[in-house]
Design brief:
The protein has 163 residues and is mainly beta. Helix content is 12%, strand content 38%. The protein is built from three helices and nine strands. The chain has a seven-stranded antiparallel sheet with strand order 2-1-5-8-9-4-3, with helices on one face. Strands 6-7 form a two-stranded antiparallel sheet. Strand 3 and strand 4 form a beta hairpin. The relative contact order is 0.24.
Length: 163
């Protein structure tokens, strides 16, 4: 516990851990993200919060597409190459194994258990260091068996990202 009860409570939230892949023309990237949620049933919409200064934010805002790669807990090694940001690891996609999403062309990363292909429907500047990107889910695939209890989360790595 810290001296800040807001941080303490925010750190209790059980975030998932995903890799968001993006594409703008021939530029591709993968980043690790945990601020993700479904926000509408009809149409099927999801929201991600992406740091405004990130390389992925640039690609998503200009390319208007992204994929949410979902990993099983036992596949934690498959997501680790994408943890560092583009500025620290600009060549991380050079050796990355992936297939292109059939609708968006964004990378579906090797090791992913499932994926959601999304087209950007809105970007909301919320006045903070991250913006909210709303994506309409236009495709999906299940690659490996599993359900919510099998999906990788921040607590599985002993990490928190809040406060």
């Amino acid at each position: 516990m810290s001296d800040d009860p807001i941080k303490d409570v925010l750190r209790r939230l059980p975030y998932g851990l995903y890799s968001i892949t993006s594409r703008m023309d021939d530029e591709i990237n993968a980043m690790v993200l945990n601020w993700f949620s479904q926000i509408s049933f009809e149409p099927q919409l999801v929201a991600i919060a992406v740091q405004k200064t990130s390389y992925s934010y640039k690609l998503i805002s200009l390319g208007k597409v992204f994929i949410v790669n979902v990993f099983n807990k036992k596949e934690v090694g498959a997501i680790k190459p994408f943890i560092k940001g583009h500025s620290k690891s600009p060549d991380k996609m050079k050796d990355a194994m992936f297939t292109e999403g059939p609708i968006t062309g964004c990378p579906i990363l090797e090791g992913a258990a499932a994926y959601l292909e999304c087209k950007v429907s809105a970007i909301h500047d919320v006045g903070g260091d991250h913006n909210i990107i709303v994506g309409e889910v236009v495709g999906a695939g299940r690659i490996k068996p599993g359900d919510a209890k099998d999906s990788l989360t921040l607590p599985d790595l002993g990490w928190s990202y809040a406060g």
